[in-house]
Design brief:
Cu_amine_oxidase-like_N, Mao_N_sf, Jelly Rolls, 9-stranded antiparallel beta sheet, Immunoglobulin-like, 6-stranded antiparallel beta sheet, NAGPA, mainly beta, Exopolysaccharide biosynthesis protein
Length: 904
């Protein structure tokens, strides 16, 4: 292939879509159904084509067209790990490569340029794709360029690296898929006829795995085009270049050693040379002379050459996964990408007609897959040959739902709804003309809360499964039952259950099922703050978010909550809790919010926020440490801050994990091994933290009064740059005060280290603790209670007392009436006869237990127990050990005397 000066990058432009046709339904009697209606299909198993020894099964959950020639299918993968069943969800876009109405292509960065990164969703939106998935591997601390080769819309953007076992996926302009290992072969010819080998196009620096040099850009010549945005070509090459600017195949400038300080112009390219290549420039090139380039790709398996001009698209990847319809041996070491992670892969069918874009979910609903499980899954869904793409935190799939104009996340990433910025991605594009109206569907949430109002719309799609404007229609809406009431296009949840919502326009209609979420559907009810000051006139923000059992987070509208105030009079309006007055001698108050019986609590107390450390006058040593044998280096010191904290001193933690292996830690250790004391019981912690976008884990380590080590998560992933304030609830961690804060640190776990930066700098400032005068165990009565099974008398702090129901043993579990425990150790219990629920309050804990149910709610979180409360002789008995230990009490059992001792 001959080189030319056209810019290499994405040819797709945002907003290049078709005009919409406005339709009416006059004379339309029947809407043709399509696969997928907004309601999951009945699951069915896919026939296994893998080894009979494989116990895994694959079940199809739903299927819907993305556009003509592309179908999105969601699968459930079920397998056995260490004797236990595990499930993962996977999403597959199957693209018909022989359908002229659809094509695959590669997107990269922002505005189609390398050295810029963008989320997959951002690239999809920018280029007008209808679906997309993240692409190639890249060095997270490098330039922002793919490791493998890339062809976009028939133009070579980047060449493969000289690495072993790295596969690429390509589609020819004739629609034939190719998965192979490729090398690059190129030549630059000077005007005098002398030639020099071309090492690559638009490459970041790396360590080649063949030849004798450890430096990719040493004694080498590379081409950089305007697709490479950065004026640095490339970073960290360990070489000083001489560069040649070529415009219209004529040399217009030759740089001094060090290269040019400008980006590549649109109408040219730059030859980047070093060593022997730079000497070639000196000997054979001059301004005004012409040069020519010639290059091709070579298959490492067949030796055949491939002209990139014959490709529609190509993207680099990692190891091969599937060959000839069976799991293959890995072509490259996969130890750094092991574990059960989110995964991305590409493959094609045996007849080479279909491409498979595969994304495995790792989130609250899915456990991820190992690479071997991914191989099994791909074979089972029909992949004949397939390869691995960048996975883990990079795995992102975006699609345009049927009838919609905008794309959305297909599933939550490992970071929730946050999409990681990557260097390139695979896009699916519609090439279809405007079609006629084929079908209608209802657009709106498939799940709403009680009291929540939601707007629904009628959408249309054409014969190519692309959106079509039906805004002129005026459908009538109705609900199949009283779970949901309808007013115009607005629906309101009334009670838990499922309703069928139907929109009718003339003789045409569309329906979808909408679920009204009840308390039994929740896993958590999170309130904006877990603690608040108990002071008349004080106001605190208390937005409430419901988390469903399938991981969906929904903001709870005010009308859906019932608030109860204990120890004070107050109100909640616009998500603000205001204390009107405090009851006499009350030290701790409670604001309890319930959604359909599911509770959460805000604990209010006479509190003060203590500025525990601002690093302005530190009188104790601060040292950098790491885990034994990890070879992590760095520093921890108090220094002048930057950015928002430029006028104060901060604790800066700098780390370098490049020489380390395994799980790596970088600690800022306070006051030697002793730590600094937190003397009063703290319910929450606030800390200003400067992030470095490394995606590493930020934590704090405490040692409590019982000698137990407590780890506090500050951020699961450091995904920000600059300063922000982090608030952490400590009330649920079981910390016995006084405690010591020993270390602030960054950890890089072993799985997925290729996705996280190994060098970086974070900083800390303004550490504060909220220390109520009475919370958790602090200030509550202490003592000892002794009870005996079958005996209604018991000892409380040495005094004999009686109760109206004796402790009993049922199926090996001891049950008691909890009231008598609370009489001694503080707290209260209330009984809700209508819901058969007992609520226990003590210190900073609210525990709801329901008769006959093993699940219970503790401070807004659903938890499971092995046993359930029951009623005997009109008295509710609760599991002794479960309740006592959750409330911070110690329980001892004496088998010989059937005696229970409870202490605090």
């Amino acid at each position: 292939m001959k080189w030319h000066n056209d810019r290499m990058g994405n040819e797709h432009k945002k907003g290049a879509g078709k005009k919409w046709m406005v339709v009416s339904l006059a004379g339309l009697l029947f809407i043709t159904p399509v696969i997928g209606s907004g309601i999951p299909l009945n699951g069915h198993s896919i026939a296994s084509v893998a080894s009979a020894a494989t116990a895994a099964t694959v079940t199809k959950l739903s299927e819907s067209p993305v556009t003509s020639g592309a179908i999105l299918t969601k699968y459930k993968f079920t397998t056995t790990r260490s004797g236990k069943q595990a499930t993962a969800l996977a999403d597959v876009i199957k693209v018909d490569l022989q359908n002229p109405n659809v094509k695959m292509d590669v997107m990269n960065g922002q505005d189609g340029q390398l050295t810029t990164k963008q989320s997959t969703g951002g690239m999809v939106k920018e280029t007008g794709a209808v679906a997309g998935v993240n692409g190639d591997y890249f060095n997270t601390t490098g330039d922002g360029a793919p490791i493998g080769g890339q062809v976009t819309s028939g133009e070579l953007v980047s060449t493969p690296s000289d690495l072993k076992g790295m596969y690429s996926f390509a589609v020819t302009k004739g629609g034939t898929p190719v998965i192979d290992q490729f090398s690059f072969d190129g030549t630059v010819t000077a005007q005098d006829g002398f030639t020099f080998p071309l090492a690559g196009v638009n490459k970041a620096s790396y360590t080649p795995e063949s030849g004798t040099s450890n430096y990719s850009h040493a004694n080498a010549m590379y081409i950089y085009t305007s697709a490479w945005k950065s004026p640095v070509r490339p970073k960290n090459s360990s070489t000083t270049p001489v560069e040649v600017l070529v415009q219209n195949n004529v040399i217009t400038q030759i740089s001094e050693p060090g290269g040019f300080d400008f980006a590549v112009p649109e109408d040219g390219y730059i030859l980047r040379t070093h060593g022997t290549a730079a000497q070639f420039v000196t000997n054979h090139m001059a301004v005004g002379q012409t040069i020519t380039t010639d290059y091709k790709l070579l298959s490492k398996t067949s030796g055949q050459s491939l002209d990139p001009a014959n490709l529609q698209m190509m993207i680099g990847g990692h190891t091969i996964l599937v060959n000839n319809g069976a799991a293959s041996a890995f072509s490259r070491d996969v130890s750094s990408i092991g574990g059960y992670r989110a995964r991305t892969a590409l493959g094609y069918s045996k007849d080479q007609r279909y491409a498979y874009i595969v994304a495995v979910e790792k989130n609250d609903n899915s456990s991820g897959m190992s690479l071997s499980e991914l191989q099994t899954f791909m074979v089972k869904v029909g992949v004949w040959k397939g390869m691995n793409l960048d996975g883990g935190g990079s795995t992102t799939m975006v699609d345009r739902p049927l009838g919609e104009t905008n794309t959305q996340l297909t599933f939550n990433t490992e970071y929730g709804t946050t999409q990681r910025s990557v260097v390139n991605a695979v896009g699916v594009y519609t090439e279809a003309p405007q079609g006629s109206l084929l079908g209608l569907k209802i657009s709106g949430s498939s799940a709403i809360l009680i009291g929540q109002q939601a707007s629904f719309q009628l959408k249309g799609y054409d014969t190519y499964y692309n959106p079509i404007d039906v805004s002129s229609l005026t459908p009538a809406w109705k609900s199949s039952n009283g779970n949901i009431v309808v007013s115009g296009q607005t629906l309101k949840g009334v009670k838990p259950g499922t309703s069928t919502i139907t929109a009718v326009n003339g003789k045409a209609s569309a329906s979808m099922q909408v679920k009204v979420i009840g308390g039994d559907d929740l896993s958590a009810l999170n309130v904006g703050t877990a603690t608040a000051p108990l002071k008349a006139g004080s106001t605190v923000s208390v937005p409430v978010t419901a988390v469903t059992k399938d991981g969906q987070s929904i903001t709870v509208p005010a009308g859906s909550l019932k608030w109860e105030f204990i120890g004070f009079k107050g109100s909640v309006q616009d998500d603000k809790l205001t204390v009107a007055s405090v009851n006499a001698i009350t030290k701790v108050g409670y604001a309890i919010a319930r959604y359909n019986g599911f509770s959460t609590v805000v604990v209010l107390s006479v509190a003060g926020e203590d500025m525990w450390e601002n690093f302005e006058n530190v009188t104790y040593p601060i040292d950098f440490t790491t885990n034994s044998g990890s070879q992590v280096t760095g520093s921890a010191q108090v220094t002048q801050g930057t950015g928002d904290h430029a006028n104060s001193k901060v604790l800066q933690l700098q780390y370098d994990m490049t020489a380390g292996t395994g799980k790596m830690y970088a600690y800022a250790q306070l006051n030697g091994t002793s730590g600094k004391g937190i003397n009063a019981a703290a319910t929450s912690m606030s800390i200003d933290a400067m992030g470095d976008s490394s995606l590493n884990w930020m934590r704090a380590e405490l040692t409590d009064a019982k000698g137990q080590t407590v780890y506090v998560d500050l951020a699961k992933a450091i995904d920000w740059t600059g300063w922000k304030t982090i608030n952490v609830d400590l009330s649920s961690l079981g910390i016995a005060f006084p405690a010591q804060l020993k270390r602030l640190y960054v950890v890089n776990v072993e799985d997925g280290q290729d996705e996280r930066a190994k060098t970086g700098t974070v900083a800390f400032d303004n550490i504060k603790f909220t220390m109520p005068s009475l919370s958790s165990e602090a200030g509550l009565p202490t003592g000892k209670v002794i009870m005996a099974v079958g005996q209604k008398s018991y000892m409380s702090n040495g005094q004999k007392k009686s109760m109206d129901a004796a402790p009993v043993i049922k199926n090996g579990t001891t049950y008691i009436p909890v009231k008598y425990v609370l009489d001694t150790f503080g707290g209260q219990a209330t009984w809700d006869s209508a819901n058969q629920r007992i609520s226990v309050l003590r210190g900073g804990k609210l525990m709801d237990l329901t008769v006959g149910k093993k699940e219970y709610i503790l401070n807004g979180k659903r938890k499971s127990a092995e046993v359930a409360p029951f009623i005997t002789q009109g008295r509710t008995l609760v599991p002794l050990r479960l309740v006592s230990e959750q409330l911070g009490l110690q329980v001892n059992w004496e088998q010989n005397t059937k005696t229970i001792t409870i202490q605090s």
